[in-house]
Protein: Serine protease PepD
Organism: Micromonospora vinacea
Amino acid sequence: MGPPTMPGADRTPLASPGSGPPPGWPGSAGGPTAGWPGSAGGPTAGWPTPAAGGSNPADASPWWSDALSDPWRDPAAPTAVMVPGVVAPGTEPEPVTDPDAPGRPTLRHLLLIPVITALLAGTLGGALGYAFAVRGGAGATVLGGAPAEVPALAQRKPESLAGVAERVLPSVVTVRVSSLGGTSEGSGFIATADGHVITNDHVVAGGSGKASVVFNDGSTAPATIVGQDPESDIAVIKVSRPGLRPVEFGDSDALAVGDPVLAIGSPLSLANTVTAGIVSALDRTMQAGEPGGPVRYYAAIQTDAAVNHGNSGGPLVDGAGRVVGVNSTIKSLVAEGQEAGNIGLAFAIPINQAKRVTQDIIGTGKARRTVIGARADGPTGVAGGGLRLAEVEPSGPADGAGLKVGDVILKINGRPMTEPTDLTALVRKFAPGSVVTVEYRRGSARQNTSVTLAADAK
C-alpha cells in the first residue's frame, strides 16, 4: 500500500523508495540539512531503524507497532512530493458531501414559505386592527360610555311606545275590498271578540261586498260588510276567526293637546306600520268627501303622527294603548288630481263618536245623525265672530231652546263658531239626547241657553 494522499494530489513518487534523496537535498550527504534528525551525524544518529524485509515490524521498531504501515509517523519513511491538479487516470476521489452545508430548497419548501409568511402577516394585522379599531389604539380617546343593557321586547315597560305597539298590533288588520275598478286597501281594528272590525266608509265604498282582512301575522280571512255610514265615514265589517283580540277603547273627550299618540295601520301597503306623534289640536272641524259623493262632517283629533294613504280606518292610540280615534283624513299641498302625501297633519274621528256609530250599525244596520234643528248661512263678518242662524226648524231642538232666525251663535260648549262647518261637525260629535250649552248674541245682548240635541228623522 502506498502512502496516503490528499484529494487531487498526484501519487507518483519522484524517487523510488530506498534510493535515498538526491545529492544536495535535505537529508543527503553534505546537503543543507546535514546534522538534521535522521541524517548522518544528526541528532538522531543511532536511533533504531526498521530492518529491511523484517517479518515483524514490532521487533524492528520498538516505538510503534504499525510504524512500517504509517509513513507519517515514521521519521525514516520515504518522502513523496505531490503535484496539485494532476490526477492519474482512474484514480478520481470519491465525492465528499458536508452534512452541515445548506441544501437546495425543494418545491414543498418553496410553497411553505409564502403560506407561513401570509399566516404570520394576517395574524399580526388582525391583532393590530383589533387593537386600533376596538380599543382605539394606545392612548386614543374613548367615545361614549359603557354600553347599557337593552331589555328584550317582552321586558319593555307596558307604557313605553314599544310596549304599547306590542299590545295593539295583533288587533290591527289590513282591509282589502274588491270593486269593479280593482281593489281598495285600508286599515281597521278589531272591536269585538266575535269579529266586528271598524274601518272607514271610504275604504269599503263602491265595493262589491266582498272583502278580506290580513292580520299582523300575515294570515288572511274573508270578511263581510255589516253596514256603513257615509256622513260619519265609519263602516263595520265582520270576520269569522277564533281567538280574536279586541282593542281597548279610551275616552276621546279626555284628550288634551300635547298627549302622545301612535297611528297604526298599513300606509302605502306597508302593513304593521307604527308612527308616533302628539295630539296637536282638538275639535278640528272637517268637511270631506269626493265630488258628487256624500259630505262628511266631524270634529277631528289633529295629530302630527305620520299618516298616509292606507292608514285610513286604522286606530289612533294613546300612551296607555287605548284607541282614541279612527285615522281618516290628511291635508296635503298638492294640486287637484295629484297624489296627496303626509305633511305632518292628520285627522282622526274621535272614538266616542265612532263607537256610537258602530253600535248603531251593529244593532240596526244604520247610524243616527245628531242634529240641532238649525242652519247657519256663514260668518257674520263683524267683530266677535259667530254664525248667524238662517233657519230654525219648528219644534226642533234649537226652537225648543228659544233660538230664533237672526241670532248669532258664538260658542257651543265653549267652542268658538267661525264657519258653518263648525256647527254641523261639532253637533255630530255628541250623541242624540246630549245637552249642550249655546252662547249666542241677539242684538247687542249676549245670552246662554241649553239645547237638547236629537237624532234626525232619516
About this structure: The radius of gyration is 58 Å.
